[in-house]
Design goal:
It is a single chain. The chain is elongated and about 45 Å long. The protein has helices spanning about 5-15, 20-25, 35-45, 45-80, 85, 100-110. The N and C termini lie far apart (about 45 Å). It is an all-alpha fold. Mean pLDDT is about 80; it is low at about 95-100. The chain has a domain at about 5-80: 434 Repressor (Amino-terminal Domain) (Orthogonal Bundle). Helix 1 packs across helix 2. It has 6 helices and no strands.
């Protein structure tokens, strides 16, 4: 995909050198989460898409070292996904339900 943005432009936006940006783009170094988000914004890529690629890159790196362990970990995550809301604070976009206990109450009421 051609965006019209040069490595120099993107490197400057991230406050890193062109050489460092090139190493990151070529996979010799990793982009930080905030760097990936900023690049996505500059290139017009949706946040969830860019973060999906960023996260998949992290998982892929883990799989290089121990594929079976990563598969087991992903199965654990998948099997516990229903309990996910109980252990993680999820941002609420509806101001009237601002925390986990409020959302649990809302789920129980079912209008």
């Amino acid at each position: 995909m051609y965006s019209g943005k040069t490595q120099a432009t993107l490197a400057k936006a991230l406050f890193i050198s062109e050489a460092t940006y090139s190493r990151k783009e070529n996979g010799l170094m990793k982009f930080e989460r905030q760097e990936a988000l900023k690049i996505g914004k500059l290139l017009g890529i949706k946040e969830d898409v860019i973060l999906g690629y960023w996260m998949s890159d992290k998982i892929y790196d883990l799989m290089k070292d121990d594929k079976e362990l990563v598969y087991k970990a992903l199965k654990i995550v998948e099997s516990n996904f229903e309990n996910y809301n109980d252990c993680v604070e999820i941002p609420c976009y509806n101001n009237s339900y601002s925390n986990v206990s409020d959302r649990k109450q809302r789920k129980r009421k079912k209008f």
